[in-house]
Amino acid sequence: MSIEVNIKGQPVELFDTDQLAVFHNKTDKTDTFLLDMFFPNKRAFETTDIPMGELDTSTPIAPLVAPSVEGRIMVDKAKYDVQYVTPAYLKPAGMITPQNVNDIAMLQTLQQAGFIGNARNMSDAEKLRVAQVAIYARNRQAITNFNVQAAAKILIDGKITFKSKDFPEVTVDFGRHADLKFAPTTTWDAAGATPVDDINTMIDSMVEHGGTTPEVALMSSKTFTAFAKTEQYKEQFVKPNGANAPAPLNAGTFNSKDAKFRGELDGIQFWTYDATYRDEAGTVTRYIGDKSFYLIADLDGFLCNCSLQNLDVLGVPLDVYDYAVEQKDPSGVKQISESSPLPVPSNPNGVAGGDAFIA
Predict the structure, then answer these.
(1) What is the distance between the alpha carbons of residues 27 and 22, in angstroms, rounded to a whole number?
(2) What is the C-alpha separation between 93 and 89, in angstroms, rounded?
(3) Tens digits of residue pLDDT in 246-296
(4) What is the distance between the alpha carbons of residues 355 and 43, in angstroms, rounded to a whole number?
(5) pLDDT tens per residue, range 31-60
(6) Distance from first CA to last CA of the chain, Å, rounded?
(7) Which of 70, 96, 127, 137 is least enclosed by beta carbons within 10 angstroms?
(8) 359 or 92: whose pLDDT is higher?
(9) CB atoms near residue 320 (< 10 Å)
(10) Measured between alpha carbons, how far is 93 from 110 in angstroms, rounded to an integer?
């Protein structure tokens, strides 16, 4: 259902959620490789907590975070309960103003989709609609960014810390065994490195503490390059195939920020991942460190969503609920998106590795 507002006494009809979604599907999306590969299962619950007994996980988990006020991620300290996990509550919002209209690519896409006429001579109503699309896209991307960042932290650390200006920080700890944090005695870019032995040590630890063996090795391009240059790797996986045989791992020519499949060794897929994001302070941050290497058995995690605490959809487990509200003080229209997500590993002890594999 669209929302109608009055601008200078004239009614202006903004886009409804379905129209916004149609346009959003035409735009570039955040890279969701980590979510897609390691948290492929989607679960929705009609409660504010995630009942862990209804998920196929290997261990009971006991973190708890709390809902937010408008526009902030809010967390609060609370009792731990081994039966339930309470996800974060997200509510990004933005004011819709004609001054927001400065994305030329977005204007062209809107014009091609028939949402606006001449992008160079828009009416006030069209400017507001374009601004609404921009805020909607920003809100949606903010939620996706949160999910990807949370997935990365939970995947590599087995825990995540939520922070806000309004509540003390809370750490959601899934209980990964300390022995699964690993650093080689000799870094892989140094003489005498033994990466194959190091990997076997990590596999033994995963079997002992997680009851599983890895399917994926995830690392930075720098770590991969160092690994591929070591003598132990060459002696065990390259030279036995003969001088003219292709290398089992693809070193490639250029590094890529996108996930890149490098090949397979003894049933373990080798992937490099160098993607980055900007944090709230504007600092460019990697999802995984440039000295990192992780063996991963858990490819069956969950992205869970709980019911939203909004009267329009109270108790409905939506991944995102979008709406616009007109307000008088301060005067304007606010586009809001609500979500209550949390990535949950199926086996917290299904990952071994660390961030100190090269110097």
Answers:
(1) 10
(2) 13
(3) 889 987 656 677 899 999 999 999 999 999 887 767 788 899 999 999 999
(4) 31
(5) 899 999 999 999 888 877 776 666 655 433
(6) 57
(7) 70
(8) 359
(9) 19
(10) 21
Chain length of the chain: 359
pTM to 2 decimal places: 0.80
**Full 3-state SS string of the chain:** CCCEEEECCEEEECCCHHHHHHHHCCCCCCCCHHHHHHCCEEEEECCCCEEHHHCCCCCCCCCECCCCCCCCCCCCCCCCCCCEEECCCECCEEEECHHHCCCHHHHHHHHHHCCCCCCCCCCHHHHHHHHHHHHHHHHHHHHHHHHHHHHHHHHHHCEEEECCCCCCCEEEECCCCHHHECCCCCCCCCCCCCHHHHHHHHHHHHHHHHCCCCCEEEECHHHHHHHHHCHHHHHHHHHHHCCCCCCCECCCCCCCCCCEEEEEECCEEEEECCCEEECCCCCEEECCCCCCEEEECCCCCEEEEECCCCHHHCCCCCCCEEEEEEEECCEEEEEEEEECEEEECCCCCCEEEECCCCC
Q: Would the CA dihedral through 340, 145, 91, 97 be positive or negative? A: negative
Residue 130 has a pLDDT of 75
User: In whole angstroms, what is the distance from residue 306 CA to residue 339 CA?
Assistant: 8
